[in-house]
Amino acid sequence: MTFALEILLSVLLVVGGIFGLTGSYGLIRLKDRMQRLHAPTKASTIGVGTALIASMLHGLMIGTGFSWQEVLVMIFIFVTAPITANYLSKVHLHSRHYGDALPKTGVSRDWATFDRTTEGAEPMLPSRDS
């Protein structure tokens, strides 16, 4: 393995570690739940992705071949991390008790939900006027 490739792999691993460290720091230091949700999801996706890329490149260069398992893990993380963050943020939004701070939606459920029983089946979002 050449010296340039070793430097490239080292840089990828250090970048992945920095993203992981930044995400951990953001999880601890950010003040709101929604902000704390953003830091680890993005950092884990990029951090684990760079580590897996470095591992795949290392395997190719030492002659063990291409690893489909690492590609599948990367695809799984890239698909599931944003979906998980979306579900957690929706749970957070729907669990907050705003009282009368939000405008009325015209249906029995909270705002920003999809109600197929109303005419036109449009999402009920708060208006910017009120």
UniProtKB/TrEMBL annotation:
A Pfam cross-reference name: PhaG_MnhG_YufB
InterPro entries: PhaG_MnhG_YufB (IPR005133)
Transmembrane segments: 6-28, 40-62, 68-88
Top-level lineage group: Bacteria
Keyword Transmembrane helix found: yes
Coiled-coil features, chain-numbered ranges: none
This protein's UniProt keywords: Membrane, Transmembrane, Transmembrane helix
Protein name listed in UniProt: Na+/H+ antiporter subunit G
Lineage: Bacteria, Pseudomonadati, Pseudomonadota, Alphaproteobacteria, Rhodobacterales
